Amino acid sequence: MARPSLLLAASTAEPSPPTKISAQGISAWYGPIRALENVCLEIPSNRVTALIGPSGCGKTTFLRCLNRLNDTIPGARVTGTIRLDGVDIMGQYIDVAELRTRVGMVFQKPNPFPKSVFENVAYGPRIHGLAHSRAELSVIVESALRHAGLWDEVKDRLASPGTALSGGQQQRLCIARAIATQPEVLLMDEPAAALDPIATSLIEALIDDLRESYTIVVVTHSMQQAARISQHTAFLDHGRLVEVGETTEIFSTPREKQTEDYITGKIG
Amino acid sequence: MPGSLILSTLLFAAAAFFLGRAAARPFGTGARSRPVYHGALLALWVALPGLAVTVAWALAQPALLDRLLLAGLPAGSVDAIGTGGRALVLAQIHALAEGRALPHLDAVIVEAGARLSRWREIGRLALFATVAATLLVSFLVARTRITPRLHARAAVERALTVGLVVCASVALLTTVALLVALLRETVEFFRLVPPAEFLFGTNWDPQVAFRSDQIAGTGAFGAASVFAGTLLVAAIAMAVAVPLGLLIAIHLVEYARPGTRAWAKPALEILAGVPTVAYFFAALLAVAPAIQHAGRALGLVVSPNSALAVGLVTGIMILPLVSSLADDALRAVPQDLRQASLAVGATRAETVLHVLLPAAMPGILGGVLLALSRAVGETMIVLMAAGLVATISLDPLGTTTTVTVQIATLLAVDAPFDDPRTLAAYALGLTLFVVTFGLNLLALRLVRRASRTDAS
């Protein structure tokens, strides 16, 4: 009798969210080297999914499959099916640029353009013609910077170069740039790896806020970070998906021995 | 003889190296430097005095002997003819000493010739003895200083540093000397022709000044038209090289497959190695007639040596400079920025236009300016394929002339050295030097700034 009641309790606590991205049988190669092997993963809508695993396990490769950024690497090859809202995005005739406006990305190392703070954020909206006047563009830029929690720090120096900001500010600027085109999904490749603890906690709080509006996939090295910010966790090792589930379950009662070893620090 | 002397000095130094190294070996770990540095230092201490003596001797002996010879001649026999006569007498004596038979010479001079040849033989032996003594003494002195406490490595490093500075200053001194030489002649020229007239006058006809019944150079050295021709040719060349070079670079960096780039870039750089004479043939025999025919078909009158043909070929010549440096600049843009732009949904073309080109702009501009100074300074193509008539005209189909052509033409005339035409060539040269030097300076500054932003 205990089982059904538990299930009931879980479903009332948080109704199972719809799937935003569904990856089926993803394999990836860089030249002759196999980086991913038959990975199947469902990414739920409006939640934070963390990808964890030791270095070189294929976390970043998988992340870059989701916005087809691996296309830009010579010799990279990806097979399998990835559906975004049920539509296959792996097809040859998919407009990759359009896909990337729906699936934004933040990189490990802050990479603002050598342009002003304003121009960094305005870059995407400009390219996609989202604003019809300077005033509209300013509204978009301000809103993106506010969402990224950077507005109060930079509102007086929008014209100064983005590269002159501190590392943590640069990373939030990159987040603002990524959300300025109003994507549905936000991919983050170890967004706090290059930052100090204070900047890291700012970014983590921000990720938690952004979950309301975006589906977020975060690659992280830090297990604590995954536990703090994510609702879903997938553990990869040697290009294979070992285990996926609710973050609380993965960290408290992992099903696989391999996952347990990694989480408790025996490997990795 | 001096060659074999230098060679034996070096051989001796080599021997000193091995001796010094062998002497330092037993020091073991107690020594401050490794044995190889003791050897190198000993070799330097031996070779440098030896070479210095040889060089100093070679520089001093001829002047010394000449003075002795003149002193030995009977008083009045040379001074009557003046300085030119002295040089002539010395030349005769030297010819005799080298074994050439000259007819109709004074007995005094024949005797002096024999004396010179004897002195030279003595000098040769004395030099040999001096060098041998120097080598031996410096070896013996230096050998006593090879001790474990010797900072041999530091000393060798210092010697190398000094050597490098000397090499570097050769290039620098050449530039300075060149500038001084140009300046001296230009000042001379500006005494004959006012600078304002040279720079802004439009009447360029250096032939007029040659006639002795005219006042030298008046009204004939207005170089503005020559500058205008240079600008026209350079502008056409840049109009060809900049867009083409940029597009080539963009293609190679962003669109070409790595395999294509591997052969395409070197192939393009071969263009930079083609002798300019080959370009001149292309301009004269292929491009200019082709433009003339095309112009005729369109009902245009095209001069056989049109500025357009010259400019086009010059443009092709400087194309690799632009494309190669733009390629480097684009390649140096961090991969991060490319990915950032692609990740917000920009296409590759948008990425190139809005991110890569602005980021690479200083480097690209540097390349463009270097190419421009090359185009302005180019002689061979324009010399043969361009005309000689200086007119202020921006008609690319007409004939034109450039600064470099005029310099070559002016110097080719067999005029005395203080003739305004010869001096005008120097003035033109100085102008060219100042312009290309300025362009290069600007280019270097931009390239440097580009590399600074890459690092950040």
Automatic annotation (TrEMBL), chain B:
PROSITE patterns named in the record: ABC_TM1
Q: Outline the extent of the ABC transmembrane type-1 domain.
A: 227-443
This protein's record includes keyword Transmembrane? yes
TM region(s), chain numbering: 40-60, 125-142, 162-183, 220-250, 270-291, 298-322, 352-372, 379-403, 423-444
Its Gene Ontology biological processes? phosphate ion transport
Spell out the GO cellular component terms annotated for this protein, sorted alphabetically and separated by semicolons.
Answer: plasma membrane
Function per UniProt: Part of the binding-protein-dependent transport system for phosphate; probably responsible for the translocation of the substrate across the membrane.
Q: Where does it reside?
A: Cell inner membrane; Cell membrane
Q: What does the similarity note say?
A: Belongs to the binding-protein-dependent transport system permease family. CysTW subfamily.
Keyword Transport in record: yes
Question: Where on the tree of life does the source sit, at the highest rank?
Answer: Bacteria
Quote one Gene Ontology molecular function term.
phosphate transmembrane transporter activity
Where is this protein primarily located?
membrane
Q: How does it sit in the membrane?
A: Multi-pass membrane protein
Query: What keywords is this UniProt entry annotated with?
Result: Cell inner membrane, Cell membrane, Membrane, Phosphate transport, Transmembrane, Transmembrane helix, Transport
| Protein's name in the database | Phosphate transport system permease protein
Originating organism: Amaricoccus macauensis
PANTHER family membership? PHOSPHATE TRANSPORT SYSTEM PERMEASE (PTHR42727:SF1), PHOSPHATE TRANSPORT SYSTEM PERMEASE PROTEIN (PTHR42727)
